[in-house]
Amino acid sequence: xxxxxxxxxxxxxxxxxxxxxxxxxxxxxxxxxxxxxxxxxxxxxxxxxxxxxxxxxxxxxxxxxxxxxxxxxxxxxxxxxxxxxxxxxxxxxxxxxxxxxxxxxxxxxxxxxxxxxxxxxxxxxxxxxxxxxxxxxxxxxxxxxxxxxxxxxxxxxxxxxxxxxxxxxxxxxxxxxxxxxxxxxxxxxxxxxxxxxxxxxxxxxxxxxxxxxxxxxxxxxxxxxxxxxxxxxxxxxxxxxxxxxxxxxxxxxxxxxxxxxxxxxxxxxxxxxxxxxxxxxxxxxxxxxxxxxxxxxxxxxxxxxxxxxxxxxxxxxxxxxxxxx
Length: 325
Ligand SMILES: Cc1ncc(COP(=O)(O)O)c(C=O)c1O
Fold this sequence. Notes:
By secondary structure, the protein is of the alpha/beta class. It contains eleven helices and ten strands. The strands form two sheets. The chain has a six-stranded mixed sheet with strand order 1-2-10-7-8-9, with helices on both faces. A four-stranded parallel sheet has the order 5-4-3-6, with helices on both faces. Strand 7 (174-176), helix 7 and strand 8 form a beta-alpha-beta unit. The longest helix has 16 residues, at 275-290. The protein starts with 14 loop residues before the first strand and ends in a 5-residue tail after the last helix.
């Protein structure tokens, strides 16, 4: 890779301290701005790591096809890498993914396949099953398999974790991250706990996802799951990349809490993040409200709010969907 490749700008994202919306005097809350990655999200880290590993193992050959199921951000990272490296990209996603995200993938040259959000996890129409089918039909294609590929978690263990440790001079006390594949929370949390076993890891989960029930009871009933508006976190199945043994506690959040906090982050702190960044900061503030001791909480802003201008940053959309401003 040459020194001026866009791939060199992946990672080493800024860590900034909340200045206005944190009312707790003894507690500092830091947010890691993953939208500084070139395709606009945390997913650049894992896609680079997984593709480079596949190339080294001969699983992905020059001119080959990369297939992935993605809520959009992994797709953007795949499409960007495919454009640079000369691969074809085919990306499947549920239809709740914002039009901005879908169009960004097309602009980067990828082919997209949109499936119904309501498709059950075991139905052939579900976006994961659609990606599996497409990959099986194209000889020599490579599926990123972000949910079950442990290289996903490893990417965060090797990059996000060490960056947070260095940027806080080893003083981070709590780490907060919501999860879908679980790669971000599992890899980063594992690294941080290895540096200091006293660090606590908290995971917010959207109401409607099965992760909270699974964490609390060790099992889940898919009938208790439901759809929600926040894009990119929570699940309807257990991903292999998600390691619950590093999670100390979980919080459930609503769409309203995530969107209100994201809007506050933008208007008060100048940080235009996505809905999951709002959820993470909401959870960091909730955690701060429960702590008696001083603390340095670190959380993640996984992606860029520009992808949601037609959704929760749009007052009309908020009203139409029953949310308050
Ligand atoms: C916007 C957004 N936030 C957070 C996440 C969660 O990251 P992870 O898959 O590492 O758990 C994702 C994953 O798709 C995402 O798209």
